[in-house]
Each structure stands twice: as structure tokens, then as C-alpha cells.
Amino acid sequence: MEYFVGDKEYFKGIGKIQFEGKGSDNPLAFRYYDADKKIGTKTMAEHLRFATAYWHSFCANGADPFGSATITFPFADKDPMTEAFAKADAAFEFFTKLGTQYYCFHDADVAPMSDDAKTYEKNYHKVADVLLARQKATGVKLLWNTANAFSHPFYMNGAATNPDFAVVSRAALQVKNCLDVNVQLGGSNYVFWGGREGYMSLLNTDMKREREHLGRFLAMARDYGRSIGFKGTFLIEPKPMEPSKHQYDYDAQTAIAFIREFGLEADFKCNIEANHATLAGHTFAHDLQVCADNHMLGSVDANQGDAQNGWDTDEFPSNVYETVSAMLVILRQGGLKDGGLNFDAKRRRNSTDLEDLFIAHIGGMDSFALGLEIANRIIEDGKFDSLVKNRYASFDAGNGNLFEAGKMDFATLAEMGRNAQIVQHSGKQEYLNNLLNSYLFG
């Protein structure tokens, strides 16, 4: 069987990636991700809902502020539209060979941008027609798309929060076209990432006004999306800074507060990225848990950062401690439903072979598959849940339960404190760390 849909094969010599088990030493095979293996009532594929990020996988060429591109793509062409069509063929070849069920993109990833609005729209919709044909040919689906309203010089002062109304309107044009394309391609979600929705200095910023403009913009976009038949979830992706000094969607808690402040909670949830959470000073699991506790966890950008670097390194996930912690939250909330695990991660600058793109994704998929299995075993064994339940047992009956249920006034609560018999209870932190290790290492 040929795992490509166009006239040309771009990833030559690489066939369908197979599951070979943990004894395999084949770098182009899964050791833990067995798509059809049942974990509980669902298969691994159904639990994990893996997606490939178009921007890092097919656009990131290894360039950084200190050096030019190191990665050459086999679909590169001098004509931007010819390259866009070839890139789509290469992308769907990659999806089908790797076995990711979904993909995600910005408008600027799939079609060349243009200062001229009509040219931008024409380019985008021509490529969207090709993407739809490739989806039909392969069965790969769109998890979400979004507008790149941060790279172009138009947006140096923000998009929806820009102090110039003309820029706000241009951002709306991009989002409108992205929503149109989303509906055409049957997207499950639509994402807003406010890369420049924030400020560099409060000396020239009316923060209250900018936040209100952003809330109005999102509400208008929601209304337009619903009017054209978008039935999915709108997602906000939190990040504290970079490229802005301070972004208005700082972390999960901030984004949820913003969603509720502007009355968007019926339509919006969060798309949590691991590296963004750590940049905000949290763990990945923390931001996931904040969202799950508020019924606001919609989807996940699966990557990891480098603790020694204070910027968004977007590495492929390999830390199984983090994937176990993440999958514990996801499983306990009943899964990601229409969301998924999108690999918002890029090859390192010196990983220049075509196979490295496969190897990077295989490692990330195996890391989450292993995390899924271990997390499911932890939940089924019930040791962690039992310890946590016992720790809060004083609120399950008697006066503690009356307090928790809101059936006690403050004076009564304070009076009880006069004669409270306080006994020290260990949090058993080291025991829990050791117990977690026992699940990971046997």
C-alpha cells in the first residue's frame, strides 16, 4: 500500500510506522503506542487523539536568532503556491505513515500570506480545497486551526488589542476566513492564541480598554462562527509572555477568569500547552488540573520545555513523569472528548534528516502511551485516590461536612476553633514519590 496521496513520495524509504513492542531497537517503530490496544473501555488511539502541528513539522526550518536555516524540506519551491500544494501532499503522507488521526494549522502555515487582503483570501481558500481533498482521501481530520495574527508587521502592537482600529479589522478578516475554512474542513475546535495580545510597557498601554476590545472581538468571532454552522469548541491557549512582555492569557487561571468575565463560558475552553504552563511558573499538570476543576479543559498542546532556558523551546515530550501526571488529570475528567494531544513541538536545529521528524513524533507518542498505561493503572489500583480521600476525611461527615455544604455561619466556625483538637497528620510526600516510582519502574 502507498501511504501518500499525490503524484510524488516525499519521505522516501519510510513506510507505515508499526508497533513492535518495548523489545524493539528500531527507531522507526513504536515501542509503547499500540493504537488498537484497549486501556479500559477505549483504545489508545481513542484516548490520545494524536495530532501533528503543521507549523513546526512542515514550516520550522531550524533557523533561530543566531543562525540561518539548517533543514531543507523536500517540497520546497520558488513559487509559494506550488510549494503550498506540495507541502499539503507531504503533510498528509506524513500523517498517514505516522498514524496521527488529526492535524492543526495556522493560516500562514498552509498558504502564503499577502499584504493584499484579496490575494490572502484567494490563496488560503485554494489550499483549503486541496486540504479537504486530502482529508477525504486519507481519513485524517482537522483537530483545530487558527489565525496567525502575530507574525506580520501589521501586528507588532497586537491584533484584537491593537490601538489602531484598522489592524483590529484586518485581524477580523483573518479570523473570519479561518472560521470559514474550519467549517469547510469539519474542524472539531477553533483556537485563539494571543501572541501579541498583551503589552511591552504600561507607559503606552490602556490595559483595561485592550482587554475589553479582546473580549468583544472573541464574542463577535463566536457569534460569526455559530452563524455559519461551527458547532465545536472555541479554545484560548494561555501563555504568560513571549513575544509580549505580558500576555492577557497569562495562565489557565487567568484565561478562565477572562472567559467568565466576558460571558464566554458557554462556548470557550482552554487549550493547554505544557511549555507555556512551565513558563508561567506552573507544572503542566497544574494548568491541566485548574482547567479540569473548572470544566474548561478542551485540548492539549503536547510538548515540554527546558528548565534551564527561560523561553519556549517546544521540545517533543520525553519526560514520562510529566505524561503520567497529565494523563491522570485527563483520565479523571473522562478524556479529552473532541480535543486531542497536538504535538506543538519541533525538531532541534541539528536534527536535519527527514527520518528525524518521524523519530521525534514516535518518541512523543510513545511517551504519552506509556503515560496513559501507567496513569490508568494508578487509577485502577486506587492507592493515590484513597490516600487523598483519607486526607480530607474530616470534611466528609459532621461539622466539616456542614462547613463544606455552606450550612454553617462564620461565628459558629470560629467558636469551634476554641476547643479544636488539632492532631498533626503527615502529608506522606516521600511515600507518594516512592509509590509513583514503583509504577514507573516496577
Automatic annotation (TrEMBL):
The residues that the entry says bind Mg(2+) 1 are 237, 273, 301, 344
Identify the catalytic residues.
Answer: 106, 109
The keyword Cytoplasm is annotated on this UniProt entry = yes
Query: So which domain of life are we looking at?
Result: Bacteria
Which terms does the record give in the GO molecular function aspect?
Answer: magnesium ion binding; xylose isomerase activity
Annotated EC: 5.3.1.5
Q: Where in the cell is it found?
A: Cytoplasm
Subunit relationships:
Homotetramer.
Q: Which PANTHER family match?
A: PTHR48408, XYLOSE ISOMERASE
Question: Per its record, how is this protein called by name?
Answer: Xylose isomerase
